[in-house]
Design a protein that fits this description.
- A hairpin with an 8-residue loop joins strand 14 and strand 15.
- Helix content is 42%, strand content 16%.
- It is of the alpha/beta class and 745 residues long.
Length: 745
């Protein structure tokens, strides 16, 4: 592309004046391929590719096409369809693609590397679908010349491809082999050592917040890498950071972490110290002292302070007095701590001990309540409980993820304008360090009391660290509830305790049944269903929403969930009916028990129900026409499922229309999706292949049961499971220096 061709295209009115100006700017900058630039709008890129010069022989395209199509077991096959349609006589933007691929063919013949660099170019050119686009926007385009100057850029692209498509490519080994063969670096180079060490540190810090240098060395599979020198250089550049500590043997040991991890951990520690410090304590709510004295006297049956009890009744409403009297001593201690003016209170207790109910009593004293939770199920339950006792209070409820987005966008003024005096956060064990930091930062300078509810024995956050566990164990602000209110069955409670201790529960206790069959867990599940459920499909639990929270099968992976859902659909006799497209390629039918996987104003992610009908609706849909032009809107008849909701106390309708790909069968769920819910009967299905399942996963699944727990399949897997003991900076103790009031020295 040159200025003369741009002028010709402009005179012929094939491009707009704005596009011609953009083209001239690119020519003045010496840009040959806009797909390799970061600041070029997608519309300009597509126009450029459309009017680029032609070339007769596409040597680069044909070479890459031959290599990619030569292997039948294509590990990603995301761009295979596009590659099969590329021809040597292509014109327009393919000349730029051919030049781009020629350079890469000269550098390597590896199929996985060529597929990755082609994927990145096609993404920048806007030639891939929405499900194939690069999700990590931080990854920059990389040419063979860029890789020769800095092979770390190629490592970033390959890592993004590896993570998005879940391939088994050993990125650093592949790049190291290419770099040494092409002379990009040599063995012993500091650049090579830094790249290998940093990548090994990232892979070691997948769940932990810090690691030892010896652990980083064990991750490096290539030779001639000086890890100590590389760590020193990376720390000096700010890519890594160290934590100086002394182990139990009294030996100094330098621990390696990422700067942002250390920064978040220190910030959370300072914020918690400020909230827990006595100087930040607020005034007690008005009638707390009278309530506490009168409630205690009434509980213990003391006749002496009867006058005080009468005075307390006169100060409280009947509803609040009845709620206070229904609390056990442990729950009452939680209410007292919050009401007495403590800024931060944590309640780390087993599931079903009344954490949400106690917070409901606390909320009855507040005038403005903000309820947050990490799952929609937990948020719905929290909102339902809190609104029972806060008729005169202003209540706002949202997920933590939404609150963090508002906080990052500096829109928390809408929340602060409510003069929030109580913040209740449920299922805090799922919170990451960044989310917990955002929560504490939003309210540390306000007069709000913050209550964190959860159980760190349940599933930890997806990512690094365990901030809720660290706050509970290192700060003196926790109130523990031990008496279970969800289940009075001895078998369920003892099974949860045994699972945490790495033991196989005994099946003799009431409320617990073991169905051991390691060879074929599905066969054991079928036998259990045949014995428990009637064979008559008209009485199947899928025919009514009343059983939506009755029996639930919980297992480890989504693949096993899919197998169980298909088994239940076949058993219920719904698989022969009308079909509806669910999420992740799953099929749903009329009569299926399903779960919504999207959020709308009618239902939320996790809402369950039953499909009663599948109908056609006229909808307005949008379609992209390319070249950066606005999306075209038109009307189209689409299939929708009419779902009778079984949950959702705040849902405005009982029957809702759900679009395709927004639901999935819900006979079985993973333990992650079950967190925050409760069911009458839980079937914990364990497969022999669940070798990576941790005790927290099994504990979370087992603790969902109210009346009965069935453990089916590879029962010995409970004994073989390990604890998810993550290495955290706050767990070291004293990681961040701070003064008495929690501020920085």
């Amino acid at each position: 592309m040159d200025n003369s061709r741009i002028d010709l295209l402009h005179r012929e009115k094939r491009i707009s004046p704005q596009t011609a100006t953009a083209f001239r700017d690119l020519v003045a900058r010496g840009v040959k391929d806009p797909c390799l630039e970061e600041d070029v709008p997608p519309g300009v890129v597509q126009e450029w590719l459309l009017f680029a010069h032609r070339r007769d022989k596409m040597i680069g395209i044909e070479g890459v096409k031959r290599i990619l199509l030569s292997v039948k077991d294509h590990h990603s096959h995301r761009i295979l369809q596009f590659v099969s349609t590329m021809h040597g006589d292509s014109s327009g933007g393919f000349v730029l693609l051919d030049t781009y691929l020629r350079d890469w063919l000269a550098a390597t013949q590896r199929r996985d590397v060529l597929e990755c660099v082609l994927w990145k170019w096609l993404d920048t050119a806007g030639m891939l679908g929405e499900d194939q686009r690069v999700k990590d926007t931080r990854v920059k385009p990389c040419t063979a010349i860029d890789a020769a100057a800095d092979p770390c850029r190629l490592i970033q692209v390959l890592t993004s491809f590896n993570n998005q498509f879940n391939t088994r490519l050993r990125v650093c080994e592949a790049v190291d082999d290419m770099a040494i063969r092409n002379g990009w670096w040599t063995k012993g180079d500091l650049k090579r050592s830094c790249a290998m060490t940093f990548d090994a540190a990232l892979r070691t810090l997948q769940r932990d917040e810090y690691t030892k240098i010896d652990a980083v060395k064990s991750r490096i599979l290539v030779h001639a890498v000086d890890v100590e020198e590389a760590v020193t250089h990376l720390v000096a550049r700010g890519a890594l950071d160290t934590i100086d500590t002394i182990d139990h043997r009294g030996k100094d040991d330098a621990l390696v972490t990422l700067p942002r991890i250390k920064k978040d951990a220190h910030a959370v520690e300072r914020l918690v110290a400020r909230l827990v410090h006595r100087a930040s304590k607020l005034d007690a709510w008005s009638d707390v002292a009278i309530t506490r004295y009168g409630t205690t006297a009434h509980r213990e049956g003391n006749d002496g302070p009867e006058a005080a009890t009468t005075h307390a009744r006169s100060k409280m409403t009947d509803a609040r007095r009845n709620e206070m009297l229904s609390l056990n001593p442990e729950q009452l201690s939680l209410v007292r701590r919050v009401c007495e003016g403590n800024r931060l209170t944590t309640c780390c207790s087993p599931p079903g001990t009344g954490k949400t109910f106690s917070s409901r009593v606390v909320a009855s004293f507040a005038t403005c309540v903000l309820g947050l939770a990490f799952t929609h199920q937990a948020l719905e339950k929290l909102a339902f409980e809190v609104r029972k006792s806060t008729s005169n209070a202003t209540c706002t409820f949202m997920t933590v993820q939404k609150f963090v987005v508002l906080h990052d966008a500096r829109k928390t003024s809408t929340v602060r304008s409510l003069s929030t005096d109580l913040v209740i956060v449920d299922e805090c064990s799922m919170g990451t360090m960044a989310q917990i930091r955002a929560l504490l930062e939003a309210f540390v300078d306000t007069r709000a009391r913050v209550v964190l509810l959860g159980d760190f024995n349940q599933l930890p956050p997806i990512g690094r660290g365990a901030p809720f566990r660290d706050i509970v164990t290192t700060m003196d602000c926790n109130v523990q509830l031990r008496k279970s209110m969800r289940s009075n069955v001895e078998g369920v409670l003892s099974a949860c305790a045994d699972i945490l201790d790495g033991k196989v529960p005994t099946g003799s206790a009431p409320g617990l049944t073991l169905h051991d069959d390691s060879s074929d867990p599905l066969r054991a599940l079928k036998a259990f269903l045949d014995a428990r459920l009637p064979s008559d499909t008209s009485a199947s639990p899928t025919r009514t929403t009343a059983s939506a929270n009755g029996l639930r099968i919980i297992t480890h992976t989504r693949a096993h969930v899919r197998l169980v859902n298909e088994l239940m659909q076949e058993r219920a006799g719904v698989a022969q009916g009308r079909q509806f497209k669910g999420s992740d390629g799953q099929k749903c039918y009329v009569g299926d028990m399903v779960r919504c996987t999207a959020n709308t104003n009618l239902y939320t992610n996790g809402t369950t129900g039953v499909i009663v009908d599948i109908v056609q609706r006229e909808r307005v849909v949008e379609a992209s026409v390319g070249n950066g032009r606005p999306k075209k809107r038109y009307r189209k008849r689409v299939s929708v499922a009419i779902v009778e909701l079984a949950t959702g106390k705040d849902c405005p309708q009982k029957f809702v229309d759900v679009d395709e790909y927004h639901i999935e069968p819900s006979y079985a769920v993973t333990a992650h999706k079950s967190q925050g819910s409760e069911y009458e009967v839980v079937v914990l299905l364990i497969f022999l292949s669940d070798v990576h399942a941790v005790r927290e996963l099994y504990y979370t699944a087992a603790s969902r049961a109210r009346t009965h727990l069935h453990i089916v399949g590879h029962v010995d897997g409970l004994r073989d499971s390990k604890r998810d003991d993550r290495l955290t900076i706050l767990g070291l103790g004293g990681a961040a220096p701070h003064s008495e009031d929690g501020s920085e020295p």
